[in-house]
Amino acid sequence: MHSSHRRANARLLAAVSCAALIGAATSAFAQLQTQPALDKIFEEAMQSRSSQEYSDSIKRLQAILAENPNLGRARAELAVAYYQALNFTAARAEVTRLLEDPSTPANVRLNLQSLLAAIERDSKPHVFTPFVNVSMGHDSNINVGPGSSTVIASGVPLTLTPGSTRQASDYLNLQAGLAHRYLMPQSFNMGSQPAALVWQSQASLYSIAYNANSAFNLNVISASTGPLLLAAGKWRLGAPIQLDEISLGGSHIARYVGVTPVFSTNIGNTEITVDTQYQDRHFNPANSQRNSNYTYLGANVGHTYQDGKYFAQAGLRGFREHASVQRFSNSGTEYFIGGGMRPWTGGTATLRFTEKEITYKDVEPVFAVARDEKEKRVALNVSHLMNTGYLDKWTISATYNVIRNKSNVDLYVYDRHQVGVTLGRTF
Known about the structure:
The protein is of the alpha+beta class.
């Protein structure tokens, strides 16, 4: 999922943070000094809401207002609970009722207006999100070639042509596109959880050009669309369909079509995700032997600490590819572990290690063995979100990637180093 979709979803799922808009101001309302029983219900409602048990919180606040409809504090907190539960219609009604009440204090009124603005923003049925990233950097091995000009094939040394060994180049990379989110007008309940249905679509271009060898210039045009079901603060379930058109060196090389069901659930500060994919990979006639069906099943877990200042993530995936020619069929596993921190306002630093093992199903011509490989990657990224001047809301980031591939076939043993700087923005 591109960051534009993640940010759009975050505006819905992180409606939870909007409690701060009125939290301080609602304390200006008189406390529930009516009945001790109502005070207890109110405390339980706040505990439920902080635990993201929105349905329970809403029921308790409604019970309080049924006893005393004039308790403005309870109605304001009910509006926040509705907002966090993605029931924007009900939230808007409660805020409007408070704003129309002449007894609502002025400072509370200001914060309620801010909450109403957030409701109007997040309840828009159609949200279009353009995004762009421009990168420049250096790649030590654009053709994924071995470092040595001599390889051993069936015990015999072979000398490679210069074009088959490692080639380095500077590069310019462009990623741009448009995401669209359609939010269904009404929320509904999934069991005891309030939920919203979103339809997400996106079209994008990924283009990387090398100044030393245009034969390896890569262009990927992608389009995806599909439903996403959100249970506020609890889980999300999606199944996007994606099409990728891939060109290499200016010539069309492949078309990938696939579907990727994904389910994520939140338990406190921990998010657990399970996803799978089925993909049909169809190549041009010159590479038709690589036509294949690719599938994977994976899971990952992420956790945040100290209100998101620190975070960690780990995951595991198993995959299988059935190709038209058996030597391109393969299966394997991949795992990753990583983490990061936000060391200053607007700053993020991440470090990630990935290891993938691949076993191919048939022997490699000339080498007379089936490939068995292990790839290791280390990725370091440091970014900063600007908040002043001409680059306000733009993110600048620096990346350094190291890739090392070990193989029982010398031709596929390689090292690769990439360093780059990216300037990007989601509008």
